From TrEMBL:
Species per Swiss-Prot/TrEMBL record: Trapa incisa
Record-linked InterPro entries: MGP1
Keywords, comma-separated and alphabetical: Coiled coil
Transmembrane segments: none
Statement: the UniProt record of this protein carries the keyword Cell membrane: no
Protein name: ATP synthase 24 kDa subunit, mitochondrial
């Protein structure tokens, strides 16, 4: 069941793109909107509904994993793409969120009550750090420099409800995006790249788990003379 648990657990966020962190480029979160519209429930009824919903999502995921062939080969782009597609199918069928949607929800919930732009940007950095995201482009420093420039111009801290000041800041962010070659219309491409990186990282973890399990089994007397199987030949469906 170790393979199954790893496959259906929440994806661990390992990589990211700074574009996901921009509030003005937020991805739509239809699922969360639906959650907000549900009537309030109390006590046992709420717990029962949560249990049934989780059970339904679990069974949906298991049903897909029993049908789809997954090759544990993080070095094979085709295997990584296949794995990513399987995970995407599970998210769609089980009504789960993608990694970028999880990140965006975290940003929205953590920054909802933040009044000033500086604390907002620092909170984004904190979220990025805690989730293991990388800022390979150096976008954070550029964004903070842009904020410094605007606050120097207006001679006071920039508040998020300052429409004129925020317009100036967002204009600076647009310049940064242009300099870095980031375009709003490319968001789907960035999300796809993110999902592929996560898929590769998860396959690497699965491969590590499989090798450790086989090494442990080989230490047992009855398996001493048995050759270790090639991880790529394992069919996860046999472990479900």
């Amino acid at each position: 069941m170790a393979f199954t648990s790893r496959l259906i657990s929440k994806s661990r966020q390992l990589y990211g793109s700074q574009i996901i962190l921009h509030k003005e480029y937020a991805l739509p979160l239809r699922g969360f909107a639906k959650e907000a519209s549900r009537p309030a429930l109390k006590g046992d009824e709420m717990l029962k509904n949560i249990f049934l919903e989780v059970k339904k999502k679990f069974e949906t995921a298991m049903g897909i994993l029993r049908k789809e062939k997954i090759t544990i080969d993080p070095d094979d782009p085709a295997a990584v793409t296949q794995y990513a597609n399987v995970m995407k199918t599970i998210r769609q069928k089980a009504d789960l969120f993608s990694e970028s949607q999880r990140i965006q929800y975290t940003i929205q919930s953590r920054t909802a009550n933040i009044q000033d732009a500086r604390t907002y940007l620092l909170t984004l950095k904190e979220i990025r750090t805690k989730r293991g995201l990388t800022d390979e482009l150096g976008a954070e420093a550029m964004m903070m420099n842009a904020l410094e420039k605007i606050e120097k111009e207006i001679k006071k801290p920039l508040m998020r409800n300052d429409k004129n000041g925020m317009a100036l800041l967002l204009a600076e962010f647009d310049k940064i995006n242009k300099k870095l070659g980031i375009r709003k219309e490319d968001l789907p491409k960035y999300e796809e790249q993110l999902e592929l990186k996560i898929a590769k990282a998860q396959l690497e973890e699965l491969k590590k788990d499989a090798l450790e399990a086989m090494e442990t089994q080989k230490k047992r007397e009855e398996f001493k003379d048995e050759p270790m199987a090639d991880v790529k030949s394992l069919d996860i469906r046999n472990f479900i």
